[in-house]
Design goal:
Length: about 140
């Protein structure tokens, strides 16, 4: 039987996913979200958080070699995993809140909305946090 995480009130089920993500730009200038999401019921406990067991490097390299699930566009063949703005969605089960960590570029041009939609995160249960660990070497440009 799968246990559904709840928010801090202890009685409201919390839907949504956790996992690593990237924002990349294709040759036409479109910004794309590529990610791997994990249901909360399948997530790993890490302190007060639920997180995806998949790391950025392993996913990216798996996509490049065809060994990872749900591979994204061919853009992964042209870059290293740390080049594009990236981040991670986790769920703080003590506070009943998702946390979206990311490169500072994630919080520009309203790109964070794409992350919320893809991971199925309710707007009232999220906190955004810039994280230097996810600092990229490429810049997203408006087309």
């Amino acid at each position: 039987m799968t246990k559904t995480p709840v928010n801090d009130t202890g009685n409201r089920p919390c839907e949504g996913y956790v996992g690593p993500y990237w924002l990349v730009q294709d040759r036409s200038g479109s910004v794309l979200l590529i990610a791997h999401r994990c249901a909360l019921a399948d997530a790993e406990k890490y302190g007060d958080f639920l997180t995806s067991p998949h790391g950025h490097y392993d996913l990216w390299e798996g996509w490049r070699t065809g060994r990872a699930p749900d591979g994204p566009a061919a853009i992964v063949l042209e870059a290293e995993y740390e080049e594009w703005p990236r981040g991670r969605v986790v769920f703080n089960f003590v506070r009943g809140q998702f946390v979206v960590y990311g490169d500072s570029q994630v919080f520009k041009y309203e790109l964070q909305q794409r992350v919320l939609e893809y991971f199925g995160i309710p707007a009232d249960l999220v906190e955004f946090s810039k994280d230097g660990h996810y600092q990229s070497t490429r810049s997203l440009h408006r087309s």
